[in-house]
C-alpha cells in the first residue's frame, strides 16, 4: 500500500465518519402544511433561514391539499402517527392531539400575552390551560363585491348597516342590467352561513352551553338562502351541485367577474390581489346586518405542535423562532394575512402590497374584528363546531335541490348534530 | 447430433435458441427452490404439497381480504370514534338498527339514516341502467368489430383506450366538457340553444354518471365478448347460410347461445363493479346535486372519513351490508352458471 493511498484512505474514512456524525446529530422535523395563497413559499423562506441557523435541526415542509389536512390528518393522528407540526383549521376538533409546548418554549408569558384569546380555541376539553401553537392567520368572513360592475350598472352600493336583503336586491339589479350569470355567490360552507345567521338572531347554544343549531335566527337566514336559490339570486351550481358537507368556493367565478357579490373571507385577499390585480375594483365590504348583529365569523388557521413528535425540545425551539414578532411580521406582511398576534395587531403589520384594493380589504376585515359577536367567538372555539357547520350545509343543500323541505332539513340538522356528538361522546 | 440428421425433424429456429438461452437464468432461479421443496415434501408428505403451493396466495388473501372483513364486522358492533378496535365500546347491533330503521323503506325521508337509503336507491338505479347499457353497447360494439370492416384494429384500439385511463382523469375530462362553460354547453350555445346546467339537475347528473361509466369501461367488456365471438366455429355460420337462415335467427340461435358464457362473465363483473362505483362519480358529480348521485361506497367513505366525527362503526355496518349484497349476487351468479352447465 503506497503512502498516498494510505493517506487518501484515512482522509476518506475521517470524512465519512464526520458526515455520518453530522447526519446522526441532525433532527428532522416534519411540518404538514396547506396553501391558500403564497404562504407556503413564505414559510419555506423562513424555514430555510431557521435550518441555516440551526444545523442540528432540519425542518421539512410537507405541502398537502387542504382536503388531506381535513380528512387524512385526523385518521393519521388517531392511529398515533403524524408529523411534528401541522397547520390546521379544525382547531378544537383536533385539540386532543396537540402537544403542550409550555415546558419547551423559552417565554410562555410572551405567548399568553400575544396569543391569549386564541389559545383557548386550541384547548383540549377539560384540560389545563396549555400552549399548543399560534395562529398563522386570523380570518374574518365577509363579502366582496365587484365595485366596477356596480359603477357600470349605475347601481349604488348599499351603505353602512345594509342588510343581506339590501345586498341581494342590489346584486340582482346589477346582474340583470349587465347580464352577469350569478348575482350572488357564497362559499358552500356552514362556517360562512354561521355569521349571517347570528346576525339574524341565531344563538347557536342553549342555556347550558350545549349546541342548539336550529332556532328562529338560523331558520330566518336559511330561508333567505333557500329563497335566493329558487329566485336565481344564487346559482344552484355551487350549493346544489355536490353532496354532503363538501366545500366549494366561488373565487374563480368572482375573479372572472361572473358574480357581483361573493361571500367568503379575508384569506382570499392575497389570491385576489394576485389574480384580479387591477382588472376591476374588488372591494371588501363590512358584514351585512340583521336584527341581532352585523357580524361575520372569526376563524383561521393555526400552526400546532403535535403529541406524535419525538422531538419536543426541537419543536419548542422552532416554535419560539416562528412565533417571534419579527418573523411573524414578515410572515403576515408578505402573505397579507390578518395577524393573530395581539402585539402586531396593535402596532400594525408592515403589509407588503401597494394594491389599494388589497389594502382596503385588509382594513375592512381588520376593523371588523371588534364588532364580531361573542356568540361567533364561542362557536369558533366550540369543539364540535364542524359537526354543526356540516349538518347545516349538507341539509340546507338537500333542501335547495328539493330532496327535503326546509322543515325536514331543520329536523335533520338537529338529528345529525345530536347523533354525531353522541357518537363522539360514547364512553369506552 | 440426431435431430440434425433426422430428415423428419423440423429445423431449429434462431428464436428458439434465443429463448432457450434466456430461460437458463429462470431455470437456475427455480432450482433454488428445489431443495427446500424436497425438504418440505419429506417432512409433510406429498399429500400436503398442494397446500404448500397454495399457501402464498392464501396468506395474501387472508391478510388483505379476510382480516379486513373480520375487522369490519368487529367495528360494526362497536361505537365511538376511537380507531383501535380494542378501545371501542361494544354496542351490539345498534349501528345496524340505526341504518335499517325506517317508517317506510320505500321512502328514505322516513328512515333514521335517510342518506344510507338514498344511497341504496341511487346505487340500485345506477346498477340497473349502467349494467344494462354496458352489456348492450359492449355486445353491439363487439359484433361490429368482429366483422371484416376497414380499420378494424384501429377501432378496437379506440374503444379500448378509455379503459387505460385513470378513473379520475376520465371524470375530470367529462367534467370539463359538461360544466356551465364546458365544451358541450359552448356547442349548444353556438347552435342557438339554451345552456344546460347538467350538474344541477338530478336526472342529468345520473344520466352522465351512467354514460361516463359505460364509456370508460365498455372497451374491457367488448374485448371479452369479442374473444367469445371469435371462438364460435365459423362452420356453424356457413351451415346456417347454406340453409338460408335469416340473420336475426342466426344471432338468436347461434351467436347468443354460444356467447352466453362470456355474457355471463360480463354481466357479473359489470354488476359487481357497478355496485362498487365510487371514484369516477365522486370526481364527476361529487354525489350531487343534493344526494342524487351519492352511491353506497361514497356514503361509507363520507361516514367513516369525511365527517368531523368519523363514525367507523356506522361506516363498517354499511360496508357489511354492501358485502352481504355482493355475496348474494355472487351466489346467484354461481347458481345460474351451474344450472347452465347442467342444462
From TrEMBL, chain A:
<comment type="similarity">
    <text>Belongs to the bacterial solute-binding protein 1 family.</text>
</comment>
<protein>
    <recommendedName>
        <fullName>sn-glycerol-3-phosphate-binding periplasmic protein UgpB</fullName>
    </recommendedName>
</protein>
<feature type="signal peptide">
    <location>
        <begin position="1"/>
        <end position="25"/>
    </location>
</feature>
<dbReference type="GO" id="GO:0042597">
    <property type="term" value="C:periplasmic space"/>
</dbReference>
<dbReference type="Pfam" id="PF01547">
    <property type="entry name" value="SBP_bac_1"/>
</dbReference>
<comment type="function">
    <text>Part of the ABC transporter complex UgpBAEC involved in sn-glycerol-3-phosphate (G3P) import. Binds G3P.</text>
</comment>
<keyword id="KW-0574">Periplasm</keyword>
<comment type="subunit">
    <text>The complex is composed of two ATP-binding proteins (UgpC), two transmembrane proteins (UgpA and UgpE) and a solute-binding protein (UgpB).</text>
</comment>
<keyword id="KW-0813">Transport</keyword>
<keyword id="KW-0732">Signal</keyword>
<dbReference type="InterPro" id="IPR050490">
    <property type="entry name" value="Bact_solute-bd_prot1"/>
</dbReference>
<dbReference type="InterPro" id="IPR006059">
    <property type="entry name" value="SBP"/>
</dbReference>
TrEMBL record, chain B:
<keyword id="KW-0472">Membrane</keyword>
<dbReference type="InterPro" id="IPR035906">
    <property type="entry name" value="MetI-like_sf"/>
</dbReference>
<keyword id="KW-0813">Transport</keyword>
<protein>
    <submittedName>
        <fullName>Sugar ABC transporter permease</fullName>
    </submittedName>
</protein>
<feature type="transmembrane region" description="Helical">
    <location>
        <begin position="52"/>
        <end position="75"/>
    </location>
</feature>
<keyword id="KW-1003">Cell membrane</keyword>
<feature type="transmembrane region" description="Helical">
    <location>
        <begin position="126"/>
        <end position="145"/>
    </location>
</feature>
<feature type="transmembrane region" description="Helical">
    <location>
        <begin position="313"/>
        <end position="336"/>
    </location>
</feature>
<feature type="transmembrane region" description="Helical">
    <location>
        <begin position="207"/>
        <end position="230"/>
    </location>
</feature>
<dbReference type="GO" id="GO:0005886">
    <property type="term" value="C:plasma membrane"/>
</dbReference>
<feature type="transmembrane region" description="Helical">
    <location>
        <begin position="20"/>
        <end position="40"/>
    </location>
</feature>
<keyword id="KW-0812">Transmembrane</keyword>
<feature type="transmembrane region" description="Helical">
    <location>
        <begin position="157"/>
        <end position="177"/>
    </location>
</feature>
<dbReference type="Pfam" id="PF00528">
    <property type="entry name" value="BPD_transp_1"/>
</dbReference>
<comment type="similarity">
    <text>Belongs to the binding-protein-dependent transport system permease family.</text>
</comment>
<dbReference type="InterPro" id="IPR000515">
    <property type="entry name" value="MetI-like"/>
</dbReference>
<feature type="domain" description="ABC transmembrane type-1">
    <location>
        <begin position="120"/>
        <end position="333"/>
    </location>
</feature>
<dbReference type="GO" id="GO:0055085">
    <property type="term" value="P:transmembrane transport"/>
</dbReference>
<feature type="transmembrane region" description="Helical">
    <location>
        <begin position="250"/>
        <end position="272"/>
    </location>
</feature>
<dbReference type="InterPro" id="IPR051393">
    <property type="entry name" value="ABC_transporter_permease"/>
</dbReference>
<keyword id="KW-1133">Transmembrane helix</keyword>
Amino acid at each position: 500500500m503506497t503512502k498516498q493511498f494510505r493517506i487518501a484512505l484515512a482522509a476518506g474514512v475521517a470524512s465519512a465518519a464526520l458526515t455520518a456524525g453530522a447526519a446522526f446529530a441532525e433532527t428532522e422535523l416534519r411540518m404538514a402544511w396547506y396553501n391558500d395563497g403564497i404562504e407556503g413559499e413564505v414559510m419555506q423562506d423562513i424555514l430555510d433561514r431557521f435550518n441555516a441557523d440551526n444545523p442540528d435541526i432540519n425542518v421539512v415542509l410537507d405541502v398537502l391539499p387542504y382536503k388531506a389536512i381535513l380528512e387524512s390528518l385526523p385518521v393519521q393522528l388517531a392511529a398515533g402517527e403524524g408529523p411534528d407540526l401541522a397547520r390546521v383549521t379544525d382547531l378544537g376538533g383536533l385539540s386532543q392531539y396537540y402537544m403542550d409546548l409550555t415546558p419547551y418554549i423559552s417565554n410562555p408569558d410572551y405567548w399568553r400575552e400575544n396569543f391569549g384569546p386564541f389559545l383557548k380555541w386550541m384547548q383540549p376539553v377539560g384540560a389545563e390551560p396549555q400552549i399548543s401553537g399560534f395562529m398563522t392567520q386570523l380570518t374574518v368572513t365577509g363579502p366582496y363585491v365587484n365595485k366596477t360592475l356596480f359603477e357600470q350598472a349605475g347601481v349604488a352600493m348599499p351603505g353602512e348597516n345594509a342588510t343581506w336583503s339590501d345586498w341581494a336586491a342590489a346584486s340582482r339589479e346589477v346582474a340583470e342590467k349587465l347580464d352577469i350569470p350569478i348575482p350572488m355567490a357564497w362559499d358552500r360552507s356552514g362556517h360562512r352561513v354561521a355569521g349571517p345567521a347570528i346576525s339574524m338572531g341565531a344563538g347557536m347554544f342553549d342555556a347550558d352551553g350545549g349546541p342548539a343549531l336550529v332556532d328562529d335566527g338560523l331558520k330566518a337566514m336559511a330561508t333567505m338562502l333557500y329563497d335566493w336559490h329558487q329566485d336565481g339570486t344564487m346559482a344552484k351550481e355551487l350549493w346544489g351541485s355536490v353532496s354532503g358537507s363538501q366545500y366549494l368556493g366561488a373565487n374563480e367565478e368572482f375573479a372572472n367577474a361572473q358574480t357581483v357579490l361573493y361571500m367568503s373571507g379575508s384569506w382570499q385577499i392575497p389570491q385576489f390581489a394576485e389574480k384580479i390585480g387591477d382588472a376591476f375594483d374588488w372591494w371588501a365590504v363590512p358584514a351585512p346586518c340583521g336584527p341581532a348583529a352585523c357580524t361575520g365569523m372569526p376563524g383561521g388557521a393555526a400552526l400546532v405542535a403535535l403529541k406524535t413528535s419525538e422531538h419536543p425540545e426541537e419543536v419548542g425551539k422552532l416554535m419560539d423562532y416562528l412565533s417571534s414578532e419579527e418573523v411573524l411580521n414578515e410572515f403576515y406582511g408578505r402573505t397579507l394575512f390578518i395577524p393573530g398576534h395581539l402585539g402586531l395587531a396593535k402596532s400594525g403589520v408592515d403589509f407588503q402590497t401597494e394594491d389599494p384594493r388589497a389594502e382596503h380589504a385588509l382594513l375592512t376585515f381588520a376593523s371588523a374584528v371588534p364588532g364580531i359577536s361573542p356568540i361567533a367567538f364561542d362557536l369558533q372555539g366550540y369543539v364540535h363546531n364542524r359537526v354543526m357547520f356540516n349538518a347545516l350545509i349538507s341539509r340546507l343543500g338537500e333542501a335547495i335541490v328539493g330532496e327535503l323541505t326546509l322543515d325536514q332539513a331543520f329536523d335533520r340538522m338537529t338529528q345529525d348534530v345530536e347523533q354525531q356528538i353522541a357518537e363522539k361522546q360514547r364512553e369506552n | 447430433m440426431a435431430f440434425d440428421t433426422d430428415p423428419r425433424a423440423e429445423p431449429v429456429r434462431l428464436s428458439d435458441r434465443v429463448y432457450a438461452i434466456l430461460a437458463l437464468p429462470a431455470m437456475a432461479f427455480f432450482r433454488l427452490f428445489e431443495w427446500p421443496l424436497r425438504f418440505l415434501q419429506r417432512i409433510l408428505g406429498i399429500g400436503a404439497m398442494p397446500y404448500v403451493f397454495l399457501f402464498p396466495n392464501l396468506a395474501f388473501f387472508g391478510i388483505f381480504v379476510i382480516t379486513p372483513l373480520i375487522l369490519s364486522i368487529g367495528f360494526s358492533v362497536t361505537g365511538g370514534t376511537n380507531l383501535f378496535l380494542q378501545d371501542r365500546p361494544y354496542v351490539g347491533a345498534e349501528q345496524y338498527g340505526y341504518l335499517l330503521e325506517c317508517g317506510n323503506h320505500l321512502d328514505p325521508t322516513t328512515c333514521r339514516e335517510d342518506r344510507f337509503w338514498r344511497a341504496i336507491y341511487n346505487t340500485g338505479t345506477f346498477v340497473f341502467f349502467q349494467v344494462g347499457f354496458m352489456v348492450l353497447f359492449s355486445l353491439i360494439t363487439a359484433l361490429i368489430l368482429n366483422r371484416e370492416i376497414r380499420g378494424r384494429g384501429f377501432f378496437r384500439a379506440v374503444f379500448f383506450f378509455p379503459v387505460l385511463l385513470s378513473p379520475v382523469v376520465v371524470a375530470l375530462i367529462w367534467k370539463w366538457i359538461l360544466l356551465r362553460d364546458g365544451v358541450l354547453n359552448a356547442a349548444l350555445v353556438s347552435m342557438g340553444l339554451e345552456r344546460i346546467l347538467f350538474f344541477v339537475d338530478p336526472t342529468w347528473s345520473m344520466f352522465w354518471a351512467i354514460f361516463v361509466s359505460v364509456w370508460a369501461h365498455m372497451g374491457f367488456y367488448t374485448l371479452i365478448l369479442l374473444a367469445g365471438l371469435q371462438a364460435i366455429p365459423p362452420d356453424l355460420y356457413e351451415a346456417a347460410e347454406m340453409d338460408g337462415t335469416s340473420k336475426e335467427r342466426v344471432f338468436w340461435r347461434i351467436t347468443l347461445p354460444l356467447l352466453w358464457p362470456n355474457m355471463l362473465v360480463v354481466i357479473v363483473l359489470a354488476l359487481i363493479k357497478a355496485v362498487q362505483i365510487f371514484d369516477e362519480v365522486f370526481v364527476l358529480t361529487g354525489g350531487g346535486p343534493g344526494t342524487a348521485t351519492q352511491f353506497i361506497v361514497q356514503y361509507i367513505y363520507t361516514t367513516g372519513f369525511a365527517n368531523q366525527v368519523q363514525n367507523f362503526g356506522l361506516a363498517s355496518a354499511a360496508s357489511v351490508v354492501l358485502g352481504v349484497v355482493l355475496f348474494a349476487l355472487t351466489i346467484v351468479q354461481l347458481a345460474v352458471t351451474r344450472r347452465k352447465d347442467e342444462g
